[in-house]
Design a protein that fits this description.
single chain, alpha/beta, 7 helices, about 40% helix, about 10% strand, globular
Length: about 180
């Protein structure tokens, strides 16, 4: 799994969530570098969130590994609800009640108008389960978002979702995950 490259909103510390923000010039360079780090490796498929920051990253990777990018909306970042587009600092100052609720129970408490980490993890896990069944024992590249990837890491490694924030990768970081779904 690969997190998308940097956006201006990453630098501005804004909640992006599912707002469709493009990569900035550094993000495009990060995407090219991530793609080049995969040069010479063979992969069977390339999937991406449909948001443009992930698609731009996946497109650069697809050029190098010679794969067409397939999109899946379930790979999107957590829906931050009413917080999307706002600065993290402003949300912490202006919506203290909801911030405290989310931090007191980060697993099941939804952002106002958005998702919880459990909602996100279930959505991403359903996607990865489907990909695992479709691409049994194949190497698949998946371009997604920070918290979405963190929940996948926790799920694959049997780590409590309460620790997900500790596993958010850097922009364009490549993370190997073995995700095997047993057919029952």
């Amino acid at each position: 799994m690969i997190r998308h490259g940097q956006t201006d909103w990453n630098l501005q510390r804004r909640y992006q969530g599912q707002i469709d923000i493009p990569l900035n010039s550094i993000g495009l360079l990060q995407a090219e570098n991530a793609a080049n780090s995969l040069r010479g490796q063979v992969f069977d498929a390339l999937y991406s969130s449909d948001l443009q920051r992930a698609m731009q990253t996946a497109s650069e990777i697809g050029k190098v590994v010679n794969l067409t990018v397939l999109t899946d909306v379930r790979l999107r970042e957590i829906h931050q609800g009413d917080w999307e587009g706002l600065s993290i600092d402003d949300v912490f100052q202006d919506d203290t009640h909801n911030v405290n609720a989310v931090y007191a129970d980060p697993i099941t408490t939804r952002r106002p108008g958005g998702e919880s980490i459990v909602d996100l993890a279930e959505r991403v896990t359903r996607c990865l389960t489907d990909l695992s069944l479709c691409h049994n024992h194949q190497k698949v590249l998946v371009v997604s978002h920070g918290l979405a990837i963190a929940t996948a890491i926790c799920t694959a490694k049997n780590i409590a979702l309460s620790n997900a924030r500790n596993f958010i990768p850097e922009n364009c970081q490549v993370t190997d995950i073995e995700f095997h779904q047993q057919v029952k």
